[in-house]
Amino acid sequence: MTLFNIRSPRKNQRFRRNFRNALPQTPAPEMPYSPMALTGEAVIDDIDHVESHLVALHTPAAFETEQYRMLAQRIEQMHKSHGLRVMAVSSPSMGDGKTTTVINLAGVLSQSPGMRVLLIETDLRCPCVSLLLGLDLPRPHNLVDAVVNPALALKDVVTWCAPFNFALLPGGPPIASHHELLASPRLGELIEEARQHYDCILIDTPPMVPFSDCRILSRWIDGFFVVVTAHKTPRRELQQALSTIDAHKIIGLIFNQDDHVAPSSYYADYYHAKSTRSR
Ligand SMILES: Nc1ncnc2c1ncn2[C@@H]1O[C@H](COP(=O)(O)OP(=O)(O)OP(=O)(O)O)[C@@H](O)[C@H]1O
Ligand SMILES: [Mg+2]
């Protein structure tokens, strides 16, 4: 199992202000690469409508984004070495940062040449990916529709998120019958179809301890990342969460909002001090 640390963007605001102009911006890919010809497209034309903690979309060159990028590199390695393709992001309880983490990961992974990324929202209790992305979805259909209506193919319900380089399958409005839907072989078929078209399929899920959704979903999933809120998630709750999934499916723990000083900020402070001295 691998451990990853993600610092809180809020703690880094002053730091970002100091460095925003000094850092080279990661160039956007020249042409968005859409792996499915008929994918609908939603254009996010105002970055201010995107939730501020989605740092990978706001500031690709920020140090927080770099932390997601390091995790993305490990995902790419695991994809190449072990064929991992369908990865869920979950956590023990509500509000640990699952959705923030999974969107940031989609943002950085999709910048990798040749990585075709699909984000699927399976949190049908509190679906909010589109909201966080500030997206006005052009398609009337979503995951729930595609499961209920087999006449809808994956390409009919996936939306390309421009200018970001990933595709989204939104969950749909909150529904009561989550369990039947998540256990449905039709969902398995849709994920199988996604495997043919995408290199990395990231799944946003509900929390593991209060709900059994992740256990039900796990049959379709290659591996889980478990987000832990640093200094908040009790050890017992984490153990409880891990016990809900087969141990071999847990890929790694992501320590979110871990605000101890990361080595990268030492470098940044060092370079900042140096550049101030040399003026
Ligand atoms: N690294 C971070 N630094 C600061 N705030 C964060 C970070 N990650 C998440 N947050 C904030 O924490 C709150 C919860 O995040 P998010 O919605 O991603 O959690 P979640 O685990 O998906 O919640 P839910 O269980 O309701 O689906 C949001 O306000 C988000 O902006
Ligand atoms: Mg969420």
From TrEMBL:
Concerning its family, UniProt says: Belongs to the CpsD/CapB family.
Checking PANTHER family in the record gives:
FERRIC ENTEROBACTIN TRANSPORT PROTEIN FEPE (PTHR32309:SF13), TYROSINE-PROTEIN KINASE (PTHR32309)
Q: Which Pfam families match?
A: AAA_31 (PF13614)
**EC class of the enzyme, as a word:** transferase
Name the reaction it catalyses: L-tyrosyl-[protein] + ATP = O-phospho-L-tyrosyl-[protein] + ADP + H(+)
User: What keywords is this UniProt entry annotated with?
Assistant: ATP-binding, Kinase, Nucleotide-binding, Transferase, Tyrosine-protein kinase
Q: Tell me, what is one Gene Ontology molecular-function annotation carried by this entry?
A: protein tyrosine kinase activity
Concerning CDD domains, the annotation shows: BY-kinase
The protein's matches in SUPFAM superfamilies, at most eight in alphabetical order, are given as: P-loop containing nucleoside triphosphate hydrolases
Official protein name in the record: non-specific protein-tyrosine kinase
What domain of life is recorded for the organism? Answer: Bacteria
What EC designation does it have?
2.7.10.2
- Give every AAA domain span: 85-217
- Please give the GO cellular component terms listed in this UniProt entry: plasma membrane
What InterPro entries does UniProt report for this protein, alphabetically?
Answer: AAA_dom, Bact_polysacc_biosynth/exp, P-loop_NTPase, Wzc-like_C
